[in-house]
Design a protein that fits this description.
The complex is a heterodimer. Chain A is about 75% helix and about 0% strand. By secondary structure, chain A is an all-alpha fold. Chain A has 3 domains: about 5-75, no CATH class; about 85-110; about 110-325, no CATH class. Chain A has a two-stranded antiparallel ribbon. Chain A is globular and about 70 Å long. Chain B is globular and about 45 Å long. Chain B is of the alpha/beta class. Chain B has one domain (about 1-230): Rossmann fold, CATH 3.40.50.300. In chain B, strands 6-7-8-3-9-10 form a 6-stranded mixed sheet, sandwiched between helices. A 4-stranded antiparallel sheet of chain B has the order 2-1-4-5, covered by helices on one side. Chain B has helices at about 40-50, 70-75, 95-100, 105-120, 120-125, 135-150, 165-185, 195-200, 220-225, 225-230; strands spanning about 1-10, 15-25, 30-35, 55-60, 65, 80, 155-160, 185-190, 205-210, 210-220. Classes of the chains: A mainly alpha, B alpha/beta. The interface between A and B is medium-sized, with 27 and 36 residues.
Chain lengths: ~400, ~240
């Protein structure tokens, strides 16, 4: 497309925007003096601004298309910078050591506030990795994921309230309960996929929240449960600060364990079954994969991590009520997965850190926070649909390639 | 090898198969031809367990398989190439083949089989690291057949391999089907709309109409049959 056409199109866009925004930007009625002020200069501002933004947008799209074409011609997909660095031990090992030092030193160097928001971010890392199993690997869109988070949180809170169950006992129990709830959700949605699945899971999430909100005898309703003990460390009496640091390291440990397990799962037989299910359900059955078991295991294992995240969440905040488990929370977790990169572990981690930490640091512009958030999401989906760090599909290697080459030569 | 006895299959309240009986011997290529909506694909799906029959018996090597889940049926040695190819679009050719061997554990044998597939379809070897979705229709069909072969089936169910392909490619694929049949002694059950080519490839054929088998004979006899020629070959 020629430059002339580009300019013409941008001009049209800016004219359209000037027309659209005319009533709100230009006309200002002064109700006291009964006069109308005309802000014509604002119209010019809108025109020029939109013209440049439109130009920028076109330029970016054109660049993206050109990049895609180039990749097609050269026959190989460009591997993103970060996975490439990760693959190179010269960057990978020092990077890992630096990250390790940063992680260990963090709570001692930075303030309590910083440590606390990082704990929250780490909870989202764990929960996001869990959802990544369901959405990223098995391709099942789950909009009610927060229900399992709630199951974990309430199982600790209630078991502690009634039976004095400690955090360390509650962690596996919460995980197990979430696992069971995952299967309970899994059964009715076995035959559903796509939009229908999303709607049903959405309903499931709402059911759990509404039950917690209204069944006062069971969950204490909207007033929630307070005074949930923080995790103990061999019965030591911890100060508030010490206990935060302890939860921080506990979350680091839990996150590492999650990463390890999810990685193993991804490469395992069941991981391959999930990928087949995501790609094509009919073909997946034709391969001899048990669809029922594959779907249920995705829901159940995904839910397990949400349950553990929920237990830690309850222990960290020491107070929970149903408002922490709204649909909005599900969407944030889903955004962590989608924005970070579906099916990519590193992507989900980065996504969680950005999505949870960014709003905290953007508190100064709190009114525009959601606006910025929305704009980032739209831009991401247009320019990087695979997420910040998309899953590296190229890593799969087939060891038999040499033998085949030999066979072909022979 | 495979025996269908009075199979009745329903979609909800609609009866798609009305008392179908069939017999496939080991080492044969048997084809099932018929018009759109006759119930050909449903017959395949009843065998593979995706749409289990409501009545009747299916025996595979004298063992009843009706009512078994699809994955068990695959593990017994019946592999299906679903209609419309259904390859995994974002997995590479190699990964697609690897999925085909999902139920197998013998890594070395899998490698050998992949090598054999690449011999059968050299184009797939060339494209081994390309995502399946970027292949042409014919290549995708080759990949779908190869993927089914990776399960080392004793019975291969092919659902309309000629769908949407150029005549030359179709011919090539049918040649390969015959080759698979003679080289590995794999029994093939072929469902086709392209009656001419299907009957030329197969040993025996069944003709289906409105959920019923209306004719069964040797393939060359069906090819010569006046009614079949009129109805399905357009001659």
């Amino acid at each position: 497309m020629t430059i002339y056409q580009e300019i013409k199109k941008s001009l049209l866009v800016s004219l359209w925007f000037m027309f659209l925004t005319f009533p709100i930007m230009v006309i200002k009625v002064n109700t006291i003096e009964q006069t109308i002020d005309w802000h014509w200069w604002r119209l010019a501002g809108v025109g020029v601004g939109v013209f440049f933004l439109s130009f920028l947008w076109r330029y970016a799209i054109a660049r993206k298309e050109a990049g895609k074409k180039k990749a097609e011609i050269s026959g190989e997909e460009k591997v993103a910078l970060i996975p490439r660095l990760m693959g190179n031990p010269r960057f990978y090992i020092p990077g890992l050591i630096a990250a390790l030092i940063l992680v260990v030193a963090f709570p001692f160097v930075f303030s309590m506030y910083q440590t606390n928001i990082l704990i929250t971010a780490l909870i989202y890392v764990v929960v996001g990795l869990g959802l990544n199993i369901v959405v990223g690997l098995a391709g099942l869109l789950d909009l009610g994921y927060v229900a399992f988070y709630a199951v974990g949180a309430y199982s600790y809170a209630l078991l502690n309230y009634h039976f004095g169950v400690t955090f360390w006992m509650a962690l596996p129990i919460g995980a197990l309960l979430a696992f069971i709830f995952g299967i309970i959700l899994g059964f009715p949605v076995l035959r559903l996929r796509g939009d229908y699945l999303a709607i049903v899971t959405l309903g499931f999430g709402e059911i759990i929240r509404l039950v917690l909100e209204n069944w006062n005898e069971f969950s204490f309703g909207p007033s929630g449960i307070a005074n949930i003990p923080k995790p103990s460390l061999f019965g030591l009496q911890l100060s508030l600060q010490q206990s935060s640091i302890f939860i921080y390291f506990l979350m680091i440990g839990l996150a590492l364990m999650t990463i390890f397990v999810v990685r193993r799962l991804q490469d395992s037989r069941i991981g391959r079954a999930w990928i087949a299910l995501r790609e094509d359900e009919v073909a997946c059955q034709a391969m001899g994969i048990d669809k029922t078991r594959t779907k249920l295991s995705a829901f159940a294992l995904g839910a397990t991590w949400a349950g553990m995240g929920g237990v830690v969440f309850a222990a960290k905040t020491t107070f929970i009520n149903p408002t922490s488990f709204t649909i909005w929370e599900s969407i944030i977790i889903l955004c962590v997965v989608v924005l970070g990169g579906m099916g990519s572990i590193l992507g989900v981690i980065v996504g969680a850190l950005i999505l949870i930490l960014l709003p905290e640091y953007l508190r100064a512009f709190s009114e525009y926070r959601m606006l910025v958030f929305g704009v980032i999401l739209v831009l991401m989906m247009v320019f990087r649909p695979g997420g910040i760090i998309s899953g590296v599909r190229r890593i799969y290697k087939f060891e038999g390639q040499n033998t085949i080459a030999e066979n072909n030569n022979a | 090898m495979l025996k269908l006895q009075n199979i009745e299959t329903f979609y909800g309240n609609i009866q798609a198969l009305k008392s179908i009986s069939m017999d496939i011997a080991e080492g044969e290529i048997v084809t099932l031809i018929g018009a759109n909506g006759a119930g050909k694909s449903t017959t395949l799906m009843s065998i593979s367990g995706v749409v289990p029959p409501r009545a009747g018996e299916i025996l595979f090597q004298d063992q009843p398989i009706h009512g078994l889940p699809p994955n068990t049926i695959v593990s017994m040695g019946i592999s299906q190439v679903p209609e419309g190819r259904r390859i995994f679009p974002y997995l590479t050719v190699l990964e697609n083949l690897d999925m085909g061997a999902f139920l197998r554990d013998d890594k070395d044998e899998i490698k050998n089989d992949i090598a054999y597939i690449f011999e059968l379809f050299p184009i797939l070897a060339e494209r081994r690291n390309q995502p399946g979705g970027t292949l042409s229709g014919g290549e995708q069909q080759m990949l779908a057949i190869s993927r089914a072969l990776m399960a080392r089936p004793r019975l291969l169910l092919l659902d309309e391999p000629s769908l949407g392909l150029a005549p030359l490619v179709v011919k090539r694929i049918f040649d390969i089907v015959r080759k698979i049949n003679t080289e590995n002694n794999t029994t093939v059950f072929l469902v086709e709309q392209n009656a001419n080519l299907a009957l030329k490839t197969a040993h025996r054929g069944y003709v289906m109409e409105n959920g019923r088998i209306i004719m069964a004979d040797a393939a060359d006899k069906l090819l010569a049959n006046e009614d079949v020629r009129k109805a399905y070959l357009g001659i």
